[in-house]
Design goal:
By secondary structure, the protein is mainly α. It is built from seven helices and no strands. 81% of the residues lie in helices and 0% in strands. α4 packs across α6. The longest helix has 41 residues. This is TMEM205-like domain-containing protein. Keywords: Membrane, Transmembrane, Transmembrane helix.
């Protein structure tokens, strides 16, 4: 499973980056409306539907995310670190499940956003609004797939390692400082990831009125 996801992410990230480069040269894209229009409709439909669900109805969405949102306190001593580490272990299976779901989502979104971008550039060469919107969607998807997801996952792993360090050496002030920094960075990158997701969603809305 891990190898499959890794290969999928690699292929879709390359496809996404390639689409951004090719979009700068519209004449390189085949001009066949019979092929491009269905591709545009399918890619937009997938992106809008999946992003709409993720933004509003998923575990990180507006309707559920704020209601269920809670921030775990930083541990002050080894006992707190043990307790918080146990809580993290209990949620490990749920975290892994969501991690796989997000990897699939970001990979497919990157692929379809690239298709949307190329189709838009060729079919609506002079429509600057749609070209900008499709570029925003493609870049947002790439940012999440290439950078934000990896950063958040590494910060989560680092936090568990810091908990173990605090358990082994409760008097280490450096570890507590590192935990504070880790928590701050996690919130920053998690927020940027969600912001990127919403930018992607709102970048799709101009197509509704065109």
């Amino acid at each position: 499973m891990g190898c499959t996801i890794s290969n999928l992410r690699c292929v879709t990230n390359i496809a996404g980056l390639s689409s951004l480069i090719i979009s700068l040269f519209p004449k390189l894209i085949i001009k066949n409306p019979q092929i491009l229009r269905p591709l545009l409709n399918v890619s937009w439909g997938y992106l809008f539907g999946s992003t709409f669900w993720l933004c509003f109805f998923s575990e990180i969405g507006v309707l559920r995310g704020f209601k269920d949102m809670k921030s775990l306190p930083l541990p002050d001593n080894a006992e707190d670190a043990k307790r918080l580490l146990e809580e993290h272990k209990k949620l490990e299976s749920d975290f892994n499940r969501r991690s796989i779901d997000f990897q699939y989502f970001f990979s497919l979104s990157t692929l379809f956003s690239g298709i949307l971008l190329l189709s838009t550039v060729r079919l609506a060469t002079h429509n600057i609004q749609l070209r900008i919107s499709s570029s925003v969607v493609a870049i947002s998807c790439l940012l999440n797939s290439l950078y934000f997801y990896n950063k958040i996952y590494k910060l989560k792993q680092k936090k568990e390692n810091l908990y173990n360090e605090l358990i082994e050496n409760p008097q280490n002030d450096t570890t507590i400082a590192a935990l504070k920094k880790n928590k701050k960075e996690f919130h920053i990158y998690h927020g940027l990831s969600i912001l990127s997701l919403y930018l992607s969603f709102f970048g799709l809305t101009p197509y509704i009125f065109t």
